[in-house]
Each structure stands twice: as C-alpha cells, then as structure tokens.
Amino acid sequence: MIKNRNKWIEEGYFIFAYKGPNEIKIERLSKTIEINKSSFYHFFATKELFKEELLNYHLNCMIIMGQKFEEATKLEDLISIFIKHKTDLLFNRQLRIHRQKPIFQKCLLKTNEISSSSILNVWKSILELENNSYLARLVLRLSVENFFLQITEEHLNQKWLNNYFTQLKEMVSAFKNNITH
Asked: Could you tell me the CATH number of the domain that includes residue 107?
C-alpha cells in the first residue's frame, strides 16, 4: 500500500520538476505507474492535496540536499550534489516559475531558507570570500535567481556547472579588484 502511494508521489514529483505543476494529470500518472486511478483518490482525495504532498516531499529533499551542502568543502562537491539532485533543482525552478500561487511561494521561501544557510560556507570558499560574509550573501542572493533562470535539464551537467561557477568566480574577482582600486 505504501509502495503504491510512493509511486504516485515519485512520478508526480518528476512531472512537476520536468514539465510543471499544470502537467500533473491523474489519468496520465495512472497509466505511467500502472496503478488504477481510484487508488490516487484513496491516498490523496484531490489533486490539490496531492500537490501539497509533493511540496512536503520537496522540502524533505531540500533538507537532505542542505545537509550535503553543509558537508561540502569544494566546488567539485557542490557540483556533484547539484547533479545528484537535478530533479530537486528543477522542481525548485518550477516553484519559481509558478510562485504567483501562494502555496508554491511559501514552499519556495522555505527551500531558499534551507539552501541559503546550508550552502554559505562552501559558497564563501568557492568564491574566495571567506573574509567577507556580507558580499558572499549578496552574490548568493543574486546568483540564485540567475542560476534558476538558466538551468534546464540539459544544463545540469558537469561541464555547464563548471563554466557557470568559473564565470561567477571571475565576476566576483573583478568586483573585488575594482573595490580595492
């Protein structure tokens, strides 16, 4: 019984992440996971309650990712986490796109809080801003929006992420040099 419930959530999460919340169709989900659609209503009652379950599932995924961020010490660690959590990042992107819905906005704010606080130490290290937490937080806030505007399923790979962080490091370095001159 729990296994079937998890199938609904996992497939719904995937569809939300890769296609958006409007593409969650119970009939299509039922066919994909090969479970009668009546079981959907047994577990979730409505599509709105199902979406709430997906948001709770996402928050748990972000907590796990946040724990990994706290353990990361270098860029390679961070990129590895991003690649392993590709679906979670794409889900978060969909939250940003659809944040006009209050329930998505609320979840987005929680995920931002989780990820921002947990990534900060490795972030400062990557950008060589260990001695400037204020600037590190500003750059993080700006780059998060930029990152989620740019990511796609194809972009979330080693090469693109390395290039993204190289450009970010160059920008921060140029900014620091201009401040001191």
From this structure: 1.10.357.10
